[in-house]
Amino acid sequence: MLVRVGCSFDYDAPELTHSVWQVRARPDGPGRILDEEWSAPARSHHYLDAYGNVCDRVLLPAGPSQLRYDAIVEVDDRPDATDPSASSTAVEDLPDEAFLYLLPSRYCWPELLRESAWDQFGDRSPGWARVAAVSDWVHEHIAYVQGSSTTETTALDVWVSRQGVCRDLTHLGVTLCRALNVPARYVGGYLADVGVDLPDLPMDFCSWFEAWLDGRWWTFDPRNNEPRVGRVVVARGRDALDAAMVTTWGAAVLKTMSVWADELGEA
Question: What integer pLDDT is reported at residue 267 of this predicted model?
């Protein structure tokens, strides 16, 4: 299946402002990039960060500027893979690539929710059933409320307030999994509305998490909490800090932003 994904940002900066962007589809999939265009108002170059995410460094000029990304990506026409028999792995047997995602990070402090996590989910069978129970619980108990969080909101804040946006639901899912000794990493990207009712909210970037079970990463999405078609991964990392769409070093002001993720039909 083909999907078209992209975004457009309008900024206004009082002076030259350095910025880093993570809005491109990752070249290592799961989708295959067939065509992409990136336009910036000034000199820019891209690099791969420590997690394999494509980052663009852009020097925003003083005054108004626009940055735009547009891509055609071939994605699997099947929903996210599931395997209720997938088992968990003992901490001492985890590969290094997964072990990293047991550790605390900027927004996810598993030690602060460890007791609560085991009280809530400890009676579930280790493995898929336990992680699915985490995703179910977050979906059912954390209200999606626009504007309910800030750049300083942690998973513990969400646990207490019982509200947040998709990145907050993802952070809580990641933290609870880590507290249960299941490696979990944050994923940000585009998600087309394929085979689902169109939401009332405008299209935006999405986030979900991946949990390490049975020797591989599996997708869990507490915001939607159902297997979906059309995910395009932009960034992976410990939490949203590693997958930020835009980071600026200066007083640049975001004026407008638009995001698209549209189904184009069969490849």
Answer: 65
Asked, as a colleague might, if the bond just before 126 is cis with ω within 30 of 0, I would say: no
The reply to whether 25 and 108 lie within a common domain is no
Residues sharing a CB contact under 8 Å with residue 141, sequence separation 6 or more, in sequence order:
162
Rg from Cα positions in the chain: 19
Report pTM: 0.95
pLDDT per position as a tens digit, 181-228: 999 999 999 999 998 887 778 889 999 999 999 999 999 999 999 999
User: Strand (E) positions, 75-142?
Assistant: none
Is 48 within the bounds of a domain? yes
Q: Are residues 53 and 163 in the same domain?
A: no
The residue segments making up the domain with residue 179 are 91-243
Write down the residue that tokens 């975001």 correspond to.
Answer: 254
Side by side, the strands of the sheet bearing 17-21 are: 44-48, 54-60, 17-21, 246-249
Strands of the chain, DSSP E: 2-13, 17-21, 32-39, 44-48, 54-60, 63-74, 143-144, 163-164, 184-191, 206-213, 216-220, 231-237, 246-249, 253-265
Model confidence pLDDT, tens digit, residues 52-102? 999 999 999 999 999 999 999 999 999 999 999 999 999 999 999 999 999
* Beta strands 32-39; 216-220: pairing state: unpaired
Q: Are residues 154 and 225 in the same domain?
A: yes
Burial class (CB in 10 A: 0-12, 13-18, 19+), 98: buried
Measured at the alpha carbon of residue 23, what is the angle toward residues 200 and 203, in degrees to the nearest 5? 5
Tokens of 31: 């989708």
Closest CA to 220 of 177, 165, 262: 177
DSSP classification of residue 27:
T
Angle value at C-alpha 146, between 263 and 7, nearest 5 degrees? 35
